[in-house]
Design a protein that fits this description.
The chain has 80 residues and is mostly helical. It has a domain at 9-63: Helix Hairpins, CATH 1.10.287. The chain is built from two helices and no strands. It has helices spanning 11-27, 32-63.
Length: 80
């Protein structure tokens, strides 16, 4: 199965993987090519995490809006 066919990990799982990547990169013990691959994966995880946080913030802003008469509807993200 390719990485693109995998189900996206939860935010918490992605954050844990990102922390592990950072620790491996900071150790300075990885060969250059492996370090570059880890860095690339870390950037991908950071971008997905940032997008997830932005969507959560948007949902909170909608829920806390001052428009009491606004119809509630399921949130549909841009990635769906």
């Amino acid at each position: 199965m390719t990485k693109k066919a995998e189900q996206p990990a939860s935010f918490e799982t992605s954050l844990e993987h990102l922390e592990q990547i950072v620790a491996r990169l900071e150790s300075g013990e990885l060969p250059l090519e492996e370090a570059l691959n880890e860095f690339e994966r870390g950037v991908q995880l950071a971008r997905v995490g940032q997008q997830t946080l932005q969507q959560a913030e948007q949902r909170v802003q909608i829920l806390l809006s001052d428009d009491k008469d606004a119809d509630l509807a399921p949130f549909i993200s841009d990635s769906e």
